[in-house]
Amino acid sequence: MSDNELSAAKDKGPQTNLPKRPRRYFLPAVVGAVVIRLELFYLASFDVQCSVPGVECFLPLLLIFYEILPGRRPRTERRKDDDETFSQTAFEDFDDWAETSAPLSLLGGLLLAYGAYRASMGSNKSTYFCSALDRASLVFWAQLTGLLLDATIIILLWRILAWARTTKSRLRTLSGILLATSLAVGTMVWLLQQYEARDGLGSLYVFDVIFDGFLFSLFIISSTFVVCEGNPSTLVGTIVMFCGILSAKHRIALAGTWENVRRGQSHTALFVLSVGFATFSYASGLRSIIYMRRILVLILLALFFVCSAIYILAKKGTLLDDYPVDKFIYNNRIEADRWLVHASVSKSVKIAVQEYQERNHRRDPPPKFDIWYKFALDRNSPIMDHFEQIGHDILPFWGLAPEKIREGVALAAQQPDIAIVKVENGAASHGQFIDSPYRPILDELVDLMKPFSEHLPNMQIAVNMNERPRVLAPWDDVQRYTQAGLGHGLRKLLSRRSVGSSPAQDLQNRVDPRSAPDILQKDHTSAQAFRQMTALACSPGSKGRSGVHWNIRDFCSTCAKPQSEGIFLKHWDMSLDICHQPDLAHLHGFHITPPSLKPLQQLVPIFSRSKTSSYSDILIPMRRQYDVPEDEPGSDFQMKYDQLFWRGKISGDDISHDLLHGGHQERLVHLINNSTSSDRATILLPSPNKGDKHKDTEEDRYRYESAPISDLTSALPINVAISSYANCKPPSPACDRALREFGTAPEDPPTLKNRYVLLTDSDNGPPVGLLPALRSTSVPFVATVFREWYTERLMPWVHFVPVDLRYQGLWSTLSYFTGLKGKGEVAGRDPQMAARAGDAVWIAEQGRTWAGRALRREDMEVYLFRVLLEYGRLVDDGRDENGFVLT
Ligand SMILES: *[C@@H]1O[C@H](CO)[C@@H](O)[C@H](O)[C@H]1NC(C)=O
């Protein structure tokens, strides 16, 4: 608050806007109101997906209501004090009239609130859903009551503080109130926690909370001064105006993209908002807005309105010349060829060694590399040089001394669901008893090692038998070890023979504070703690680490943008990284369900079948515990059902609120089967005006349009359902709820009898049946966050069709292949969009051929051999000297 404004306020006559005297009970009333308000906020944010956006915008309207109540505002008296009434100009007359007109005040407030509300309404919803079984109306009433309480709190505070005589006493009263409310809120939270468990934010965000709390108090204190010199409605109105402008600006910037297909809407909102604010500012005598004269602000508003109109008009013709999928297929086909050339450069061991060094930070290949090379050659491996995943998995361990790695294996061996496979004198074995459920898997793994185990050094490998990956080391640790590991390679470049302690070992001794690791991990982890551990595995600057993603109601466009082109998933590889997609923490079953076994937060070598980008497990090919029996790859594509088929499994009887509404399987079923008539989605359609003139489909241009989901489900054949609720014991309320929510699948035809097969992750691991689907003549649609050993070998849009787990592009992607011609009305017309079944056949065929070339059992052997050679060297004390050198 400036002295200017203070004195300006004084000039107008001392305390012209003084409200009525506060009553004695006001203080406790404020405290009570804040407590109830926070409880309502908690209630509404528990089901935030059901809340109505923009309700808060109506706060100024409520305040104005209060102010114009009879006897509340001493407006009329102000000018009467002046002697100069006779010299008033017509303009000032207008001012006078405006400032005393209650209806005008109300009208301004109404327009302002409505404009801001419309401006904040347009954003896209995420697929985290509000079910018919949720108490959406309760949330709405909580929002409304909360709004009323907000107004009450502000008015009470205003009346209390405006009557404080000096600044000092005002501050003292305010801090008293803040302290009392904090105490009351703290007590209430403590009391409630005795009855129900509530997730806190977690210690990772303590600094954020303190910082935000500090900012908030600062805001309260400074706004107190502003408000006490005027009315609360002027400050609140100004804030709402700014927020409205910001969201309108955000929406307008998206005009022409798929996220804002109704361009006019936000612009109209902006208009209403501006007119509303102009009226409001005159009606409430707001002469200056943050040091700017009112007229200047209004001119700026008008300018912004005109500029955005021009921007929107310029964007209006955003028609796409090609369907993006067309381009993806064409480009990635070339890319796949290029990749394959690069993946198999070497034609002899000599070149292979050079390639290895080039791709592995100048390190020599492991001993017996020539034998591996011959092995791979004999097995016709199409890939001889590209093993980036192995390099990536192994590299951090170069920062750990060999004996530390061996200690890690011993530590891992004590964990549940870890089996040890031993290689001794060229023979691999595991010590699982005959009745162990893991035995068949380990038998198979040992079997896979048999052809090459004679070449392996003695070692012990810790194999993870759990569905979930296990090693969730913090980013800082992994990074430090990786840097140390890189040092190794560089040092070797300088001198081949270095004796004495290696710097990496020194570093290791220094950096490992967990010399006494917590061997017996606590088994239970909360979803919150688990999410926090995952966040720690992201780099400090990334979005996944730096904040809490709480707005699960709206579509997170910054999360999806990096890997998307328009509504489609373009860079599949990027989509596997969670660190720039914090929204996935609430949109994927893997992140929502806490693991039954707490992940290890230190770097230990554990071999797993699959992992997400956050984990440091070493990937190996391995059978799953419950693999689907491979059904016959199926007949001809043309003979199959023309639909996208998916069957999900909900497992566990502990289905949390978050999982029920946000799990990737649950969202999918709700989206397709339970959308209401008002739900809409965006889809790319051929633009209508072009289609009339030219019947030639090649002339088609495309535009994003919004269509009711009911149109899309009837035009596009998508068959999804939950086929089993494993571990569901009948009396479980969570199971009961899930059953009512999603229903059960009618009957299950064989998956591969369908032309399009949607493969999503289970809650614990990658899609079941991905390899069989690749090997079949069906087109796999893949939505996953997991990596497996062969992930790097797959090319999206060539071997399979990638789908974003937010499902925003599912409709458009499928419609490219099945077409929309003659399938009923979409967005009010029959879109003349021909099917591209030819492309579908091509992708199915590419996937099949490639799986037959690069994803065979032989390829698993080649991969496993190479990983184990690397690992064998890693745990060898002489690892710095004994690399493979061609003689
Ligand atoms: C959702 O759809 C399924 C299948 O159509 C149905 O069984 C289930 O009752 C629906 N759920 C709700 C909440 O309406």
From TrEMBL:
<feature type="compositionally biased region" description="Basic and acidic residues">
    <location>
        <begin position="690"/>
        <end position="699"/>
    </location>
</feature>
<protein>
    <submittedName>
        <fullName>Glycosyltransferase family 90 protein</fullName>
    </submittedName>
</protein>
<feature type="transmembrane region" description="Helical">
    <location>
        <begin position="25"/>
        <end position="45"/>
    </location>
</feature>
<feature type="region of interest" description="Disordered">
    <location>
        <begin position="680"/>
        <end position="699"/>
    </location>
</feature>
<comment type="similarity">
    <text>Belongs to the glycosyltransferase 90 family.</text>
</comment>
<feature type="transmembrane region" description="Helical">
    <location>
        <begin position="235"/>
        <end position="254"/>
    </location>
</feature>
<feature type="transmembrane region" description="Helical">
    <location>
        <begin position="51"/>
        <end position="69"/>
    </location>
</feature>
<feature type="transmembrane region" description="Helical">
    <location>
        <begin position="102"/>
        <end position="120"/>
    </location>
</feature>
<feature type="transmembrane region" description="Helical">
    <location>
        <begin position="204"/>
        <end position="228"/>
    </location>
</feature>
<feature type="transmembrane region" description="Helical">
    <location>
        <begin position="295"/>
        <end position="314"/>
    </location>
</feature>
<keyword id="KW-1133">Transmembrane helix</keyword>
<keyword id="KW-0812">Transmembrane</keyword>
<feature type="transmembrane region" description="Helical">
    <location>
        <begin position="173"/>
        <end position="192"/>
    </location>
</feature>
<feature type="compositionally biased region" description="Polar residues">
    <location>
        <begin position="498"/>
        <end position="508"/>
    </location>
</feature>
<dbReference type="GO" id="GO:0016740">
    <property type="term" value="F:transferase activity"/>
</dbReference>
<dbReference type="InterPro" id="IPR051091">
    <property type="entry name" value="O-Glucosyltr/Glycosyltrsf_90"/>
</dbReference>
<feature type="domain" description="Glycosyl transferase CAP10">
    <location>
        <begin position="573"/>
        <end position="878"/>
    </location>
</feature>
<keyword id="KW-0472">Membrane</keyword>
<dbReference type="InterPro" id="IPR006598">
    <property type="entry name" value="CAP10"/>
</dbReference>
<feature type="region of interest" description="Disordered">
    <location>
        <begin position="497"/>
        <end position="517"/>
    </location>
</feature>
<keyword id="KW-0808">Transferase</keyword>
<feature type="transmembrane region" description="Helical">
    <location>
        <begin position="266"/>
        <end position="283"/>
    </location>
</feature>
<feature type="transmembrane region" description="Helical">
    <location>
        <begin position="140"/>
        <end position="161"/>
    </location>
</feature>
